[in-house]
Amino acid sequence: MVESPLVKTLLTTSAPEAAEFLRRGELVAFPTETVYGLGANAFDAAAVERIFVAKSRPADNPLIVHVASIGDVARLTREITPLANRLIGAFFPGPLTIVLPRSADVPDIVTGGLETVAVRMPRHPVALELLGAAGFPLCAPSANRSGRPSPTTWSAVIDDLGGRIACVLQGKATEIGLESTVVDARGDEAVILREGGLPAEEIAKVARVRFPAASEEAPASPGTRYRHYAPSAQVRRVVHPEEVRASRDAAFIGFHHPKGAADFARCRVVADAAEMARELFAFFRDCDASAVGTIYVELPAEEGIGRAIRDRLERAERR
Ligand code: TXA
Ligand code: MG
Questions:
Q1: Which of 203, 208, 199 shows the shortest CA–CA distance to 176?
Q2: Exposed e or buried b per residue across 43-80, where buried means at least 16 C-beta atoms within 10 angstroms of its C-beta
């Protein structure tokens, strides 16, 4: 794969200034309510190509297109199904991505050759301001090097992509901390391809929800094939924190104080699953920076945002 040329990365809080880079076909990282994204003009294939180079991302892993209006959804897709209309009405803007048949306007590189396109309208005011200033939809995967945990702060973006992208539009730490929920909305059931910031229980209030069978998941959402969301340290999922053995080489994050908490290299006790979601990826990065060997994570209950956390942990532990 081609290496990124070294560039100077500008830090700014000005959306109009960041939008100038996008107009020139350059990459801009920006905050959303889920995680930071790495944006490029979705209609500029050469700009989109740069995303794959900067992240070292496999070319067959398609990108989510971020929009500021329903008019943009219509331009990117061939059909907005009744189900998609219901989901848009209930959850746009927000942490939901819907997959629909793509229109001819969408460059092949965006969809990895698929006949579908993934679309999301973020609700973060800075993301919406950037989309407004640019005037075109933005392709944006999470702004990390491929395989690393998604960035929840602008400094995590710099750690991974500093010197490889033109600009970082700075915002606060992200509110949710996990990526959006991805739903195939082509049929009459919402098929959940990736659990995320919008809990399946919420979607079930407006639509029939289904999880794909293992056999259909891989072709439906190519990104699920890759190792993801993972720190360098070995993640170990824990059901009973009292069974974890503290050591200077290990870290713990969970809902209860483990025995010998002070003997861990890092120990973080959170109040609930929402706080765990918000803190998890930054905790992973912090552990990697201090060369922790094993990270123990107490599993949240399998409900609400807890389901998405469990999904990310399962992927991180598998290696
Ligand atoms: O919260 C988020 O979704 C963040 C922010 C920046 O919006 N973005 C994000 O993008 O997580 P990324 O590229 O890291 O993950 C996108 C996921 C991948 O698993 C990809 O395979 C899937 O969405 N995807 C994209 N287009 C698809 C399509 N046409 N059909 C099925 N899955 C698709
Ligand atoms: Mg990602």
A1: 199
A2: bbeebbbbbbebbebeeebbbbbbbbeeebbebbbeeb
Structure tokens that stand for 48 in this block: 């989109």
207 lines ligand 1 (CB under 6 A): no
Contact 137, 67 (CB under 8 A): yes
Contacts of 6 (CB under 8 A, 6+ apart): 163, 164
Q: Which residues surround ligand 2, an ion (CB under 5 A)?
A: 142
- Report pLDDT digits (tens) over 110-141: 999 999 999 999 999 999 999 999 999 999 99
Strand segments, DSSP code E, in the chain are 10-12, 28-30, 37-41, 64-66, 96-101, 116-120, 138-139, 167-169, 181-184, 190-194, 209-210, 234-238, 250-254, 266-269, 294-298
Give the count of alpha carbons within 13 A of 291, CB side only.
Answer: 1
pTM of the predicted model as reported, rounded to 2 decimal places: 0.96
> Which of 113-127, 200-214, 222-236, 258-272 shows the lowest mean pLDDT across its residues?
222-236
Count of C-beta atoms within a 10 Å radius of residue 156? 25
Q: Pick the closest to residue 114 from 77, 160, 148, 152 (CA basis).
A: 77
Q: 156-189: per-residue pLDDT in tens? A: 999 999 999 999 999 999 999 999 999 999 999 9
Helix residue ranges, H only, 37-139: 45-55, 70-76, 82-91, 108-111, 125-134
CA-CA distance, 172 to 136, in Å (whole number)? 24
Nearest ligand 1 atom to alpha carbon 95: 1
**How many whole angstroms from 54 Cα to the centroid of ligand 1?**
16
Number of other CB atoms surrounding residue 127 within 10 Å: 28
